Amino acid sequence: MEIPYGVKERPDTGLNNAKLGIWLFLASEVMLFGGLFSAYIFLRTGVDDWPMGSKYLDVKMATLNTLFLITSSVTMVMSWASLKLNDFKKFKLYAGSTLLLACGFLVIKYFEYSSKFSYSYYPSTDNFLGIYFTMTGLHVIHVIGGIAVIAFLLFPGAKMWETDPERFTSRIEVTGLYWHFVDLVWIFLFPVLYLL
Amino acid sequence: MLEVLRKLGLPSVSASTQGPSIDNIISMVHWLMLVLFVGWGIFFIYTLLRFRESKNPKADYGGIKNHYSSYAEAGVALIEIALLFGFAFPIWASRINDVPQGPDTVQIRVIGQQFAWNIHYPGDDGVFGKTDVNLVNEQDNPIGIDRSDDFAKDDIWTINQLHIPVNTPVNILLSTKDVIHNFKLPELRVSQDAISGMQIPVWFEATMTSEEFLEQSVGTGREGKGFQIACAQLCGLGHSKMVGYMTVHDDEGYSNWLEEQKEYLLEEDEDDWGDDEW
Amino acid sequence: MSDNHTKETFFTKYIWSIDHKVIGIQYGITALLWLLVGFGLMMVMRYQLAYPDTQIPFIGWIFGEDKLLLPEKYNSLGAMHGTIMIFLGVVPLAFGAFGNYLVPLQIGAIDMAFPRLNAASYWTYFLGSIIMVVGFFVPGGAANSGWTSYPPLADVATAGQTVWLLGMVMLITSSLLGSVNIMVTVIQLRAEGMTWFRLPIFVWTQFITAFLLLLAFPPLEAAGILQLMDRLAGTSFFLPTGLVVSGEVLTNAGGGSPLLWQHLFWFLAHPEVYVLILPAFGIISEIIANNTRKPLSGYKSLVYAMTFLGFMSFVVWAHHMYLTGMGTTMGAFFQTTTMIISIPSVVILTALLLSLWGGSIRFNTPMLFALAFLPMFGIGGLTGLPLGLAAADIHLHDTYYVIGHFHYVVAPGTLFALFAGVYFWFPKVTGKSLNESLGKLHFYFSFIFMNGVFMPMFIQGLAGVSRRLADGGQAYAHAADVIYLNEIMSWSAWLLGMAQLFFIANVVLTLFKARTGEINPWNATTIDWTETTSPPLGHGNFEKIPVVYRGPYEYSVPGSKIDFTPQTEKG
Ligand code: HEA
Ligand code: HEA
Ligand code: CUA
Ligand SMILES: [Cu+2]
Question: Are A161 and A95 in contact (CB under 8 A)?
Answer without folding.
Answer: no
